């Protein structure tokens, strides 16, 4: 068994590292992964494990390897099952013993991967630890569904079948590209980078420790001298626990030019900006409010965002006066927190917290600092070289420049038109510095949260061309599509939307000289993972800014994403001559459409129109090139 542990050490550490929750932090997660594997051998020897027997070899080396896997899995999964109120102070005495390896003065973490690895890490963070384990075992280790099910069951997973199903949805069913990503350095806890801990903070803590020791010695001497004459006094009560909030001196401050010399272009590259970034009193109030919001504080949490205080010292992004409020913006690696207080009144402070895990070049490009009737002010990323405002309802009108102060705060951006009308839908149009990427402009739309949503576009499929990938929504075709979809943005609300992609998946010639129609699937992805889709239909007879007709909606679905690349939709339609038809269309892999219900028809191809009664109720079934069948969205 010792030989098996040495030989499979890297694979076991990779497994433990992937299963452990990301909330532990990169450094602690790496050390725990090595610790769990190194301690698996004595536990395996001292415990009678119920290890699943392989189908072809029931003893020997395979049994030892599976025994180690089960023990590593059991130990790593225990960290996800900890109660929310768990604290090291509540752990049993054995849990407080120093772990091996023990590292002082350095922080260790795996090397950063590329965009695909970061995207996979983001998706893995949205599923359970058991599902992450199942994905790795299926894809990298090449185990069958039955073997993975048995391993998870032996490790104490309550529903291993659900974990395997979720793993398949992450790409375990198509192991080629996923295996390459999971084998990359992003997920390898044995190929590490090292950086020093905060040297200034460390020296400060040493001085504080020496000072505390001197005070403790003086106090002990005083107590010893007075103890003999104080025999009548009763037992003393313990002092209250110290406040767990971090101090302003603990805040992480990134150098101003770090974004120009890093492969990780996200919030970690933002420097501390603002005229009050050294106001310790203000920063202390912001940190204390995030840790323990005082009574009366208006706290706003974005969907699927934890309310817990940060476990490590957050990074300071901004502190300054914005309009009639003072704002502090903090980042703890997965969440943004915006603390604001009124400058000239005694109104209660406000705290807004939102998820921003795995933000990138575009989704970490702007943060809302303040909003009101006069518009919203944004803090732009240091890599933004040009900012402007564009009205989506006027695709042919050029964007107008947006004035930005030296500290990155913009002038107010007008809000969308209020009331029942839809007269304007302003969005940010930003350009990245050429030191990051050349000729890169993109759109961000305010959704009422801290981070505006990134708008993208996929054009109609071309003949002989592979399926398109989302691109920036700044070209003429994209602006036309978003001109028809802009008014639907308001229906999304502040649901923690990270990005919205408009996919023109089919074009159809309409009967009775109705012109042509374009079918669009707009998918809104949230920071927590689930998304919702809205399928719309616009015709060539519509005005350039006429809202597209909503055909269907679906929530918590993979449709119209990279994991749901096949889609079909249907609706009833009245022609210019007053005749009713059933319309249906599908994406590029659809080869046949069949209608049943108030109308009956079958047609080879990707589009269909069939005469029908007034407001027909139909069901449309699409057949794919693989022979699979797909229910069309909008079927009744």
Number of helices: 13
What helical percentage do the residues reach?
A: 10-25%
Biggest sheet layout: 10 strands, mixed
- Secondary structure tally: strands: 26
Q: How would you describe the shape?
A: globular
Radius of gyration: 29 Å
Uncertain stretches of 5 or more adjacent residues:
46-58, 83-98, 226-244
Description:
The protein has 636 residues and is of the alpha+beta class. It is 25% helix and 26% strand. It has 13 helices and 26 strands. It has helices at 2-7, 9-19, 26-38, 40-46, 61-77, 115-125, 129-139, 145-154, 160-172, 175-182, 199-227, 280-291, 476-485; strands at residues 106-110, 192-196, 298-301, 315-322, 325-331, 335-342, 350-355, 366-370, 377-380, 384-391, 400-401, 426-432, 441-445, 453-458, 471-472, 497-509, 516-526, 531-539, 549-555, 568-574, 580-586, 590-597, 601-604, 607-611, 618-624, 629-631. Strands 10, 11, 12, 13, 14, 15, 16, 17, 18 and 19 form a ten-stranded mixed β-sheet that branches. A five-stranded mixed β-sheet has the order 3-7-6-5-4, covered by helices on one side. A four-stranded antiparallel β-sheet has the order 23-22-25-26, with no helix packed on it. Helix 2 packs across helix 3 and helix 7 packs antiparallel against helix 8. The radius of gyration is 29 Å and the shape is globular. Mean pLDDT is 82; it is low at 46-58, 83-98 and 226-244.
């Amino acid at each position: 068994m010792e030989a098996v542990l040495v030989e499979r050490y890297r694979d076991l550490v990779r497994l433990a590292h992937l299963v452990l929750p990301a909330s532990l932090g990169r450094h602690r997660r790496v050390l725990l992964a090595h610790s769990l594997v190194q301690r698996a051998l004595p536990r395996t020897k001292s415990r009678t494990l119920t290890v699943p027997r392989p189908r072809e070899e029931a003893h020997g080396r395979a049994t030892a390897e599976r025994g180690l896997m089960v023990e590593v899995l059991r130990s790593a999964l225990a960290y996800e099952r900890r109660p929310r109120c768990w604290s090291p102070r509540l752990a049993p005495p054995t849990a407080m013993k120093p772990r091996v390896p023990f590292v002082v003065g350095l922080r260790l973490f795996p090397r950063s991967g590329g965009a695909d690895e970061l995207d996979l890490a983001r998706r893995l963070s949205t599923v359970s630890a058991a599902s992450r384990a199942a994905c790795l075992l299926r894809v990298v280790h090449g185990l069958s569904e039955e073997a993975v099910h048995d391993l998870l069951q032996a490790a104490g997973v309550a529903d291993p079948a659900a974990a395997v199903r979720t793993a398949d949805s992450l790409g375990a069913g198509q192991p080629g590209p996923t295996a390459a990503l999971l084998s990359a350095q992003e997920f390898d806890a044995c190929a590490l980078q090292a950086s020093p801990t905060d040297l200034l903070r460390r020296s400060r803590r040493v001085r504080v420790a020496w000072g505390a020791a001197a005070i403790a010695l003086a106090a002990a001497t005083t107590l010893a001298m007075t103890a003999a004459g104080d025999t009548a006094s009763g037992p003393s009560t313990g002092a209250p626990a110290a406040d767990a909030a971090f101090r302003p001196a603990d805040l992480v401050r990134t150098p101003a030019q770090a974004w120009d010399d890093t492969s990780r272009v996200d919030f970690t590259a933002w420097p501390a900006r603002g005229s009050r970034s050294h106001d310790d009193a203000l920063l202390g109030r912001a940190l204390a409010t995030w840790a323990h919001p005082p009574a009366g504080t208006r706290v706003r949490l974005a969907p699927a965002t934890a309310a817990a205080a940060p476990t490590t010292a957050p990074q300071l992004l901004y502190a300054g006066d914005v309009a009639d409020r003072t704002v502090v913006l903090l980042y703890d690696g997965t969440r943004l927190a915006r603390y604001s207080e009124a400058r000239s009144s005694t109104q209660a402070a406000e705290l807004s917290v939102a998820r921003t895990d795995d933000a990138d070049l575009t989704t970490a490009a702007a943060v809302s600092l303040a909003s009101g009737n006069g518009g919203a002010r944004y803090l732009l990323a240091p890599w933004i070289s040009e900012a402007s405002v564009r009205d989506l309802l006027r695709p042919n009108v050029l964007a107008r420049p947006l004035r930005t102060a030296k500290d990155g705060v913009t002038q107010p951006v007008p809000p969308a038109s209020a009331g029942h009308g839809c007269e304007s839908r302003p969005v940010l149009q930003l350009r990245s510095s050429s030191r990051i990427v050349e000729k890169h402009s993109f759109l961000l739309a305010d959704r009422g949260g801290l981070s505006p949503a990134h708008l993208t576009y996929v054009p109609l499929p071309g003949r002989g061309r592979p399926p398109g990938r989302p691109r920036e929504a700044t070209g003429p075709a994209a602006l036309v599509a978003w001109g028809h979809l802009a008014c639907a943005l308001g229906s999304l609300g502040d649901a923690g939307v990270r990005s919205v992609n408009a996919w023109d998946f089919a074009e159809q010639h309409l009967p009775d000289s109705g012109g042509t129609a374009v079918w669009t699937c707009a998918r809104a992805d949230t920071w927590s993972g689930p998304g919702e889709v809205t399928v719309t239909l616009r015709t060539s007879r519509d005005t350039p800014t006429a809202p597209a007709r909503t055909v269907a909606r679906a929530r918590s679905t993979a449709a119209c994403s990279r994991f749901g690349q096949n889609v079909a939709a249907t609706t009833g339609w009245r022609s210019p001559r007053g005749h009713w038809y059933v319309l249906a269309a599908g994406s590029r892999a659809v080869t046949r459409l069949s209608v049943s219900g108030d109308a009956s028809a079958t047609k080879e191809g990707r589009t269909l129109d069939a005469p029908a009664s007034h407001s027909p109720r139909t069901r449309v079934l699409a057949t794919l090139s693989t022979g699979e069948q797909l229910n069309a969205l909008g079927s009744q």
